[in-house]
Write a structure and sequence with these properties.
The structure is a single chain. With 366 residues, the chain is of the alpha/beta class. The chain has twelve helices and 17 strands. A seven-stranded mixed beta sheet has the order 2-10-9-6-5-3-4, with helices on both faces. It has a three-stranded antiparallel beta sheet with strand order 8-7-14, with no helix packed on it. A hairpin with a 2-residue loop joins strand 11 and strand 12 (215-216). The protein starts with a strand and ends with a helix. Bound molecules: pyridoxal-5'-phosphate (PLP). Pyridoxal-5'-phosphate binds at residues 56-58, 80-81, 83-84, 126, 152, 154-155, 176, 178, 189.
């Protein structure tokens, strides 16, 4: 069976060496030497000044929203992973779903503006599939209406725009280092932020508010990254450029076979953006292609290829939110969620498998 992704693993001998170091330091967690080193190396790679590490991407997002002490409504996209809306709701905030753009699937600035009320406190855009949200337009809107912008950059590790690292846009950005992501630390996450005060709050929120043996200055949770994750993160950072390059070659192979087919759209390219090739989504328009996305997914499964409907259903259609939102309010997102299929993509996916998968998809056309 070929799955949609497979975690990248560094050579085991290198990880064993890191574990030896952990054994020697005898510090397994609580911001030990690996945590410190990982934090420094990440800042360099992400070209940003400040980050805080977390146990996973979700807690990075949930606690970052908490650190801004927001009240009221938060405008976001329904075309994303469950975490984005959940983090908003779990902070006692109300998500307001704006629609996305047909061409790059990120929040449509015009739709963001149309959803602003006197209760709006923040915007949480998602750099979906590593596509950059319209950071320039969003910054203008945020300034005009005095809103915070917290980017869910879980998909956008390593992406740069006009030479600037993706971690530097908005008031904060969060990253996920989950095993299924382009780059991982088994589980893990990070938040980058502009304001030092937010950094202090994030540290307290991830470590019980403990500032010293006898000083507890805030009511924090526990969302620290441990040393074994930090060690994996440090090692994988050595190989991330190699992984991105391998994915670029696979992406080009898919594009070679799947471009110029009526009713089938491949992932979009963005001007000025250095992509990370995190995902390879295709969009199938049933009327023009002749068969539905679901039929293509079934056909792939018959050939032991488990493509995934990322992102379907929309978060606004989750059972958990039954009766609260109307998915028809975001027609573009609704349409794309019914068309999308993410094809398998990971660095060591053999090119002959890529060809085979793409050919199965192409042959589905009626
Ligand atoms: C993976 C993901 C998250 C959550 O990250 P975890 O590390 O799995 O907690 C949040 N947002 C998006 C868009 C994601 O894909």
């Amino acid at each position: 069976m070929i799955y949609v992704t497979r975690p990248k693993l560094p050579p085991i001998e290198e990880y064993k060496k890191m574990i030896d170091e952990i054994w020697e330091s005898r510090q397994l967690t609580n911001m030990g030497p690996m945590h410190k080193r990982f934090s420094e190396e990440l800042k360099r790679y992400l070209r940003t000044e400040d980050i805080e590490l977390f146990t996973n991407g979700h807690m990075a997002l949930e606690l970052t929203l908490q650190a801004f002490k927001l009240k009221g409504e938060v405008i976001t996209t329904p075309f994303t992973f469950a975490s984005t809306a959940h983090a908003i709701v779990r902070n006692g905030l109300t998500p307001v779903f704006a629609d996305i753009k047909e061409d790059d699937y990120t929040l449509d600035p015009a739709s963001i503006e149309a959803h602003i009320t006197e209760k709006t406190a923040a915007i949480v855009p998602v750099h979906v599939y590593g596509n950059l949200a319209d950071v320039e337009a969003i910054e203008k809107i945020a300034k005009k209406h005095n809103l915070k912008v917290i980017y869910d950059a879980a998909h956008a590790f390593g992406v740069t725009y006009k030479g600037k690292g993706v971690a530097n846009f908005g008031d904060a950005s969060i990253f996920s280092f989950h095993a299924t992501k382009l780059y991982h630390s088994v589980e893990g996450g990070a938040a980058s932020f502009k304001d030092k005060k937010i950094g202090e709050r994030l540290y307290n929120l991830k470590n019980f508010g403990i500032q010293g043996p006898e000083i507890v200055e805030a009511v924090g949770a526990n969302a620290k990254m441990h040393e074994f994750s930090a060690a994996m993160g440090i090692l994988n950072l050595k190989y991330v450029e190699e992984e991105i390059e391998a994915r670029r070659i696979i992406t080009e192979k898919y594009e070679e076979i799947l471009s110029n087919i009526q009713g089938l759209r491949v992932r979009s390219k963005q001007e000025g953006v250095v992509a990370n090739y995190a995902y390879f989504p295709i969009f199938i328009d049933e009327d023009e292609f002749g068969v539905s996305r679901d039929i293509v997914a079934e056909e792939l499964l018959k050939h032991n290829v488990a493509a995934r409907k990322y992102f379907y259903p929309l978060t606004s259609s989750f059972d958990a939110y039954a009766g609260k939102f109307n998915p028809n309010d975001t027609p573009v997102a609704l349409k794309l969620s019914k068309q999308v299929l993410a094809l398998p993509l990971y660095g060591d996916l053999p090119l002959n498998d890529v060809e085979r998968i793409a050919t199965i998809v192409r042959r589905c056309k009626k």
